[in-house]
Amino acid sequence: MECKQFEIQGYFESAIFDGNFDSIKTSFEGSTFWAADILEKAGAKRRLIEIIQRYNRRHPCRVVRPKGQSALVVAPIGKKQCLAYRLEPSPEGKTRITPVPFLMTRDKIGIVVILTLGFILPALLTPFVWRNYEQKNLRMSRYYLISFCHYLESRFAA
């Protein structure tokens, strides 16, 4: 599947975007409300977009763990739900976008506390519950990968 400024690879496993990695990363560091814009590009209902905008006021979108040659951008869109993408520079001034399984630390701690209150056996299941939520978030991030690329396309129109 090819579009003007990006190319989806595999079954929504990654995308190559024609844009400078540093400018895209800097843009996400300065913007905290891009989750609602992505869902709006995907055609979500207006009511859902308003709910996500309110949620992002308390839990803003941000760049988590920016490492030298990659960055992880995370957009919370509900309780234990988020869109997470790894941005990496590619040759020829392009950026590789990869959906990743991610669960916020506060959600991990909340799951541990709730399962611990239910005695020891449920607490031993914590890693499985974390993995379940991470996989749900990965599926959601893959689903919105094209909308994410369209959002970048509208912000960095050449």
Element layout with pairings:
Layout: E1 6-9, E2 14-17, H1 21-30, H2 34-41, H3 46-58, E3 62-67, E4 70-78, E5 81-90, E6 94-99, H4 105-117, H5 120-124, H6 126-143, H7 145-155
Antiparallel strand pairs: 1-2, 2-6, 3-4, 4-5, 5-6
Helix pairs in contact: 2-3, 2-7
Account of the 3D structure:
There is one protein chain. This protein is α+β, with helices and mostly antiparallel strands and 158 residues long. The chain has one domain (6-155). Helix content is 49%, strand content 25%. It contains 7 helices and 6 strands. It has helices at 21-30, 34-41, 46-58, 105-117, 120-124, 126-143, 145-155; strands at 6-9, 14-17, 62-67, 70-78, 81-90, 94-99. A 6-stranded antiparallel beta sheet has the order 1-2-6-5-4-3. Strand 4 (70-78) and strand 5 form a beta hairpin. The longest helix is centred in the last third of the chain and has 18 residues, at 126-143. The protein is globular and about 55 Å long. The two termini are 20 Å apart. The relative contact order is 0.21. The model has no long low-confidence stretch (mean pLDDT 83).
